[in-house]
Design goal:
Blueprint (H helix, E strand, L loop, with lengths): L5 H13 L8 E7 L5 H11 L5 H14 L16 H6 L6 E6 L4 E6 L7 H8 L4 E7 L6 H12 L4 E7 L8 H14 L7 E6 L23 H7 L12 E3 L2 E6 L2 E7 L10 E5 L3 E10 L2 E2 L8 E6 L10 E4 L5 E12 L10 E6 L2 E14 L6 E2 L9 E14 L10 E5 L6 E10 L15 H8 L4 E6 L6 H14 L4 E5 H4 L11 H20 L3 E5 L5 H10 L5 E7 L2 H7 L4 H6 L21 E4 L5 H14 L4
Parallel strand pairs: 1-3, 1-4, 4-5, 5-6, 22-24, 22-25, 23-24, 25-26
Antiparallel strand pairs: 2-3, 7-14, 8-9, 9-13, 10-11, 10-14, 11-12, 11-13, 15-19, 15-21, 16-17, 16-20, 17-18, 17-19, 20-21
Helix pairs in contact: 5-6, 10-16, 12-13
Amino acid sequence: MSGPSPDTDRSTKAGAARSLTTVPPALRFLTCGSVDDGKSTLIGRLLYEQNLIFDDQISALERDSKKHGTTGDDIDYALLLDGLEAEREQGITIDVAYRYFSTPKRAFIVADTPGHEQYTRNMATGASNAELAVLLVDARKGLLTQTRRHAVVASLLGIRHVVLAVNKMDLVAFDQSIFKSITKNFAQFASDLGFKEIVPIPVSARYGDNVSSDSANMPWYSGPHLLSCLETVDAETDSDGKPFRMPVQWVNRPNSEFRGFAGTLTSGSARPGDEIVVLPSGQTSTIKTVTGSDGDLALAGPGNSVTIVLNEEIDVARGDMLAALRDRPQVADQFAAHLVWMANEPLLPGRSYLMKINHNWLTATVTDLKHRIDVNTLAKLAAKTLAINEAGVCNLSVARSIAFDSYACNRATGAFILIDRNSNETVAAGMIDFALRRAANIHHHHSTVSKSARAALNHHRPAVLWFTGLPGSGKSTIANLVEAGLHARGIHTILLDGDNLRHGLNKDLGFAEPDRVENIRRVGEVARLMTEAGLVVLCSFISPFQAERRMVRELLPEGEFIEIFVDTPLEDCIARDPKGLYRRALAGEIKNFTGVTQPYEVPQDPDLHLMTVRDQPAALAAQVIDDLARRKIF
């Protein structure tokens, strides 16, 4: 048995391009569902029955089936897609396996995704570009939590066509009542997920029942087999009928005579003479030329990578969007979105993350988590955070206005990812719902007296002295001594202490991670406002997380934030225990206590490092004052 040659594949694709009116476009679909429901086996069997496996692959598959297989003496078709050694040894899918294949009727790109809960983020990756989902269910087990979770993620990511493949029918004696029960239960669960079409098919992936031919074992089923369904489904692509959009990936300027804007059309078309708008600036122009890899084009469509030259010389940068003049995307710096959380560390509203959207990299903050989605009931649950593999709805604020469409209107321009700023790990996939217009009538008020004028009147520069360290490290003691020393020198100061602010501004906050993040966010904003008055602001806070300390630093101009690490060994802090908090925390009476049940992230490169085991508080305070003089704060 042998597979198609590369030339055959190319001719098939070429034929599809020439006959768009008779041959459906290539279909991108994924297999998903709970672990061990037979996703890899189903696709492996489909490839085998379509003679799409090379002879050497069959020989290798037979050998691997004896070593790693789970089907006795039979060929284990799952091994065709489980390419990682860990996958074969454990008998599970870990990574997303992509396969291209074609039949005389259609071309396909399939993403075989893992079923384990810990790899839900891999499933989301596979779903992000798919137009149809083949959702497998083990006939013996029915709908499981992970089955529902994958259905919810598929819906969130814009998939509107689902094949419900009830697998392993051979293990339930091809019982029609079991198939009908599972189909009914799924229809009830998915009624609010927005699927356009759900096609239930009873299959046995291991033996090929209803995979690419009708099964004689289930005469009671009169619907299509899987391959027939895939070949005929009319799964519209996201770019169908959508207006022109092209996020700019690169400004192409090889010399002073040429300036073009390179990118990929995510939807719509572009031709010379078309009127366009550049967003977010709002400047307008017309297209002069559209150039592809083979030269100038009369027309470019979705998926084409091109360089566009405009008739007018206007400012365009990477991350800007070229769009249809009379059908524009939204532009905002706040929006509501669905999030699928992918990281082991939970989502913390108020924390600063990096967002990547339409070739833009910018800081973003979840300002409000509206609710978490229960994957079993689709109920909207109150939540302060999202854990790994959970989905929810939130409001986000980004550093500057950007152009985007709602994800429901355009999956390419409405999708984004969030990245942890410390680890560079992708922590979430996001889908924009709509722009938030709440601040459209709010503008910055510019006062007559400037920050520099206030500083000149004070005869010193403003600054934020940020004292951080473990509870009991001596932060407040040293900060008090520093303020007294500065006051004696005529420096205008204010001291913000963690305990004091929790009596007023932050009295509504607890000590869980989300509350700690919000605590520091508020303090940072207050400190920034006080520097506008020209003050030296002394802030004494545990502030255990690097991300929040960096967030405050980025609120201020270069040189105005001075991070002071009060370094005291944990055992010394416990021995001091001036408030008796360590004793209570170690006894389990206080939860979320830094140094005991909550981590403290040590500053990696503080502006000033105070070692309390070497010097007394007065000497350490003198070091701080000397450092301020060296920095010419006064």
